[in-house]
Design brief:
By secondary structure, the protein is an alpha/beta fold. The chain has one domain: Response regulator (Rossmann fold). The protein contains five helices and five strands, in the order βαβαβαβαβα. Strands 2-1-3-4-5 form a five-stranded parallel β-sheet, with helices on both faces. Helix 1 runs parallel beside helix 5. It is globular and about 35 Å long. The C terminus is likely disordered.
Amino acid sequence: MTASARIAVVADDLIWATRLADGVRSCGALPVPARSAAGVPAALDGARGAIVDLTSRAYDGLAVLRTAAAAGVPAIAVGQHDEIELRRAARAAGATRVYAYRALFEHGQRELGGWIGSLPAPSVSGSAR
């Protein structure tokens, strides 16, 4: 995985946006941040994957997951461990996995590295989708 592997990081909370971007970077990929709904299309454009924080006030995390799925961008999500219905809804919206904040914080490099490493390679045309 090289720094050219772009990963959309959709998170409006500064701490989590920074942690997620640092995690992506530590796995050798390039984080492309989006902190609002308006920034999501640009972050997804050319992305090999997306990480979506479900507890945002600046965008609808489930809508972002549906948008990523429609664009063919594999996505994972992160949210509160006790929000079972939201986590189920995230899976239904297209998240391949939903992590609790604590689990991703404690095992982020291993989990993110495995996920990023499993993402499909870009097509010959250079598109991420």
